[in-house]
Amino acid sequence: MIGRLNHVAIAVPDLTVASDMYRDTLGAQVSPPQREPDHGVTVVFVELPNTKIELLEPLDETSPIAAFLERNPAGGIHHICYEVEDIYAARDQLKAKGARVLGTGEPKIGAHGKPILFLHPKDFNGTLVELEQV
Ligand SMILES: C[C@@H](C(=O)O)C(=O)SCCNC(=O)CCNC(=O)[C@H](O)C(C)(C)COP(=O)(O)OP(=O)(O)OC[C@H]1O[C@@H](n2cnc3c(N)ncnc32)[C@H](O)[C@@H]1OP(=O)(O)O
Ligand SMILES: [Co+2]
Fold first, then answer.
1. What is the CATH classification number for the domain harbouring 42?
2. Could you tell which of 71, 128, 130, 131 is best to mutate to test the pocket of ligand 1, judged by most ligand atoms within 8 Å of the CB?
3. pLDDT tens per residue, the chain (134 residues)?
């Protein structure tokens, strides 16, 4: 069901510092910051030849990444995103197998303009999984 790796997301306490580090120290191509009010984060995309890295900073204390950053003040890998062809079919198959779909269970439009869903980290070896329909 899952296809290519779409992105790995890293929660960071300071987006400017993290973005500068990826550009100046690691020599990567980074996007301008993009506010995502529907997701409670500001995102910088790091474009790599074979995938993307999302640097995520919380928009405020109600952000879904706020508790994670409290537990990991220096930041850390927050989620991994796999591509799927049909997000409703993927969701229904996963639910039938007992996986917990987060939120309302209805896909939202993600930062790339495509439908996304999240799966509970406790159901996938402690890794928060995002699915994106491509
Ligand atoms: C823009 C968009 C895009 O790509 O297009 C994005 O990515 S938006 C990216 C931001 N959006 C999201 O992440 C949406 C989905 N996420 C959520 O709904 C939330 O973050 C949850 C995954 C439910 C976690 O929320 P919260 O930390 O408040 O819950 P909690 O404190 O009750 O945590 C429950 C247990 O899960 C663990 N836990 C929490 N977040 C985790 C993570 N990212 N990776 C691995 N484990 C994690 C906690 O340590 C805890 O374990 P213990 O019980 O063992 O202590
Ligand atoms: Co993401």
1. 3.10.180.10
2. 128
3. 999 999 999 999 999 999 999 999 999 999 999 999 999 999 999 999 999 999 999 999 999 999 999 999 999 999 999 999 999 999 999 999 999 999 999 999 999 999 999 999 999 999 999 999 99
User: Containing domain of residue 14, as a range?
Assistant: 5-133
Catalytic one of 54, 57, 83, 130: 130
State the total domains in the chain.
Answer: 1
H or E element at residue 28? none
Q: What is the 3-state secondary structure (H, E, C) of 1-23?
A: CCCCEEEEEEECCCHHHHHHHHH
Tokens 């799927």 sit at which residue? Answer: 84
ipTM for the predicted complex comes to 0.97
Q: Is 70 a residue of the active site?
A: no
- The pocket around ligand 1, CB under 6 angstroms, is made up of 9, 36, 39, 41, 43, 54, 56, 64-65, 67-68, 78-79, 81, 102, 110-112, 116, 118, 121-122, 126, 128, 130
Tokens 């409290």 belong to 70
Q: Which residue has the tokens 């779909």?
A: 101
